[in-house]
Amino acid sequence: MGAMDKGALYRLAASYLGEAEVVPDAVLCRAFDDVVQQVIFLALDYTQWPFALKVREVLLDDAQMCELPADCLEVRYCSLRRWEVFGRVLVNRGEEVEDACLVYKSSEMADQVSLPDQEPYFCEGVALLLAAKAAPRVTSRFDLAAQLEQRAQAALYRAKLKVVRSHNSNDQVPVTGREEVHDGYVC
Question: In degrees, to the nearest 5, what angle opens at C-alpha 123 toward C-alphas 148 and 133?
Answer without folding.
Answer: 35
